[in-house]
Amino acid sequence: FASNICSCTGLPDCLLILKARKYPMEGSHSMKIVVIGAGMGGMTAAARLSRGGHEVVVYEASDQVGGKCRTEWIGKVAFDTGPSLLTLPAVYRDFFQRTGKPMGLVCPIESVSPSFDYRFADGSNVKFANLSRKETLDAITASFGAESAAQWDRIMKRAERMWDVSRVPFVESELKSPLSLIKRITFMRDMKIIAPWKTLRQHADEILKDQRLRFIMDRYATYSGSDPRKAPAVLSTIAFVEESFGAWHVKGGLGNLTTTVHQRAVDVGVTFHLNSPVARIQTTGNKASGVVLADGTIVTADAVIANADASLVYNKLLTGHKRALKKARKNIANADVSVAGFSLLLGMRKDPEQVLNHHTILFPENYDAEFDAIFNEGKPVEKPTIYICAPQDELMSKDENLEGWFVLVNAPTHGQFDWSNSEFASKYANSIIDQIESRGISVRDRLESLTIRTPADLEAIVRAPGGAIYGTSSNGARAAFMRAKNRSPIKGLYLVGGSAHPGGGLPLVGISGDLVTEAIGYEKNARH
Q1: Alpha carbon 389 to chain centroid distance?
Q2: Residue 109 gets which letter from DSSP?
Q3: DSSP element (H, E) containing 290
Q4: HEC string for 233-244
Q5: Confidence (pLDDT) at 195
Q6: Distance between CA 357 and CA 113 in Å, rounded?
Q7: Considering the chain, what is the average pLDDT of its residues?
Q8: What is residue 46's three-state secondary structure?
Q9: Which helix (H) or strand (E) holds 514?
Q10: How would you class 452 by CB atoms within 10 Å of its CB: exposed for 0-12, middle for 13-18, buried for 19 or more?
């Protein structure tokens, strides 16, 4: 992903430096480009292309931009209801630098430290430091012993090697086919390091003897909505990236990043139409030629960028093209859907004697029961891993005595399970609160407001099929190749966002926008 991997952890200013891309024009004239959806991938691509001289118009079905990345106010407190931290900030630093004023001037970020407070069913806990492996290893030593710390250090060193060989072909570049990787000169060496025949669970079991550390490593599979027993070992690189390049918070909430990216796009000439759903992608022959809006308006274009779930693009927005889309549709049908999320937005009275860290993770006694319930049985997890985001950010409350907690548990999608039953949702929410309180964290005696969000709600709000957070999972060694490619089989149609390569999460959808920009091309240097 970066031109050079930085391993000098512990320095906040130690950042990724993106390789300089050249964007050749596909022709000598500017193009008219339509973007379907104003998610982060769509907006970053739109702004880059508009800065490069193209005419770009975005049609968004809802009344808001940003897709899943949003900060919502409920009463006097705000909640990050999508991403709750920013990793690999260089993706957005690069975006802002190349489209206008630097990120630091328009959207300041701050380090989250400790990055995570992990708590286990046996009463033990460990806090991972931000941007410092030494501090994290010291914390593991204090909590679990020196041998456990040595094992974590070993798996991080292996993860760094995996990242070094996988970042270019799997993240930084368009992923075309397994054959394209086999042709690489370093293929055999790279495969030995990445070990695609191993799952994340197998990889962790070989190195980490402490079950608590294995639980932490398992959790990185859920970053892509996957089952660690099926997801590839290379997902351990997420732990290395998180440690080395940091966990960051946007002041006022991650939604401010959305607002700033949107404003940058407007500033460079992108036109946005909200409440304007697209009904169909129009094609002429085997080339995208525009879109048809829900109200029947036809909008012609030289290229179309779809920032919508790939299953919607290929199965609903496109008709015909049976032969051209056969493989893409088959891959979507065969891919495991990612996990969805059941969340609670808790407005809480502050308690100076019980202040949570920004991120607190409550692991259950049996982590496998969670993956069995979601992936094998398609039902809510009785005793799930509970994630609590409690930002200590004064800009996210209009009352100095109140704070917002965003509580999330992994869940099956709406479709695997019927989440329309509000009575069940209420009982399940109370069960989760009971489990939080059983771990010594008071909730009910401080609770000012409670809002429940089910996978069905997420599906309705952001049009994510079933409420799946990441589109498709990374279950299986071939999962990356089954994810929708940035260049579709239809000429002039491109895909960005979490269901397209390289995957879900703020950094990756930003990279997808960059990859599509490169694919379409523009001749002006956006750095000045």
Answers
A1: 16
A2: E
A3: strand 287-293
A4: HHHHHHHHHHHH
A5: 79
A6: 8
A7: 89
A8: helix
A9: helix 506-520
A10: middle
Q: How far apart are CA 81 and CA 228, in angstroms?
A: 24
Taking the C-alpha atoms of residue 96 and residue 92, their distance in angstroms, rounded to an integer, is 6
- Detail the DSSP E strand segments found in 294-334: 298-300, 303-306
CA–CA separation, 44 and 360 (whole Å): 31
Give the pair of three-digit tokens for residue 454.
């089910």
Q: What is the pTM of this model?
A: 0.89
DSSP tag of 497: S
**Tokens encoding 284:** 């002429």
Q: Residue 11: which pLDDT band, with cuts at 50, 70 and 90?
A: very low
Q: Taking a C-beta distance cutoff of 8 angstroms, is the pair 202, 235 a contact?
A: no
HSE value, Cβ hemisphere, 13 Å, CA-based, for 128: 24
Exposure of 114 by Cβ count < 10 A (0-12 exposed, 13-18 middle, 19+ buried)? Answer: buried
- Phi, psi angles (nearest 5°) of residue 73: -95, 125
Under 8 Å between Cβ of 510 and 92: yes
Q: Residue 179's CB: how many other CB atoms inside 10 A?
A: 7
Q: Residue 415 carries which side chain, given as an amino acid letter?
A: G
Task: Calculate the alpha carbon distances from 352 to 240, 359, 392 in Å.
Answer: 33, 17, 12
Total H helices, total E strands in the chain: 18, 19
